[in-house]
Amino acid sequence: MFRSKAKRHPSALAQEKFDTILGPQTEIQGDIRVSESVRIDGRLTGNVCAETNGHVTVVVGAHGVVVGNVRARRVAVAGKVQGSIEALEEVELHSGSVVEGDVACASLSVAHGARVMGRVTASHERPLMNTTEAPAVPVQTSKKKVELVA
């Protein structure tokens, strides 16, 4: 949680190897299952489900939008996610990111200016949900807005 700012800066995400990149002009409708890291700079209306036995990272870039749930070993958000996020290891919320849904992970990094509207559970004892099925599409419920500021 108390890491150097260089680690949390969105430019540090560029150093990671991504096998799949959804460009800023790309719009996809439907669930995707990934076995390698993916970066989303466009718009995805659907769920992202990664194999839990791999070291899969899902990154939502500064202009990226995901309307659906995200499940992976590691998730970094600089853009917007309208759905739940579940990470076996770490979730990074960068400055300007918006998450409208619950976040469950082992470790959470939150930059000043990141917003979460949902419940946050950060625990090393939290197992991933059943990975044989795609996560459910988020249900619109009333949630309290929680703004995390450092």
TrEMBL record:
Q: What is the protein name stated in its UniProt record?
A: Cytoskeletal protein CcmA (Bactofilin family)
Provide the family line.
Answer: Belongs to the bactofilin family.
Lineage of producing organism: Bacteria, Pseudomonadati, Pseudomonadota, Betaproteobacteria, Burkholderiales
Instruction: Note the InterPro entries from the entry.
Output: BacA/B (IPR007607)
Origin species, per record, is Tepidicella xavieri
Domain of life (superkingdom): Bacteria
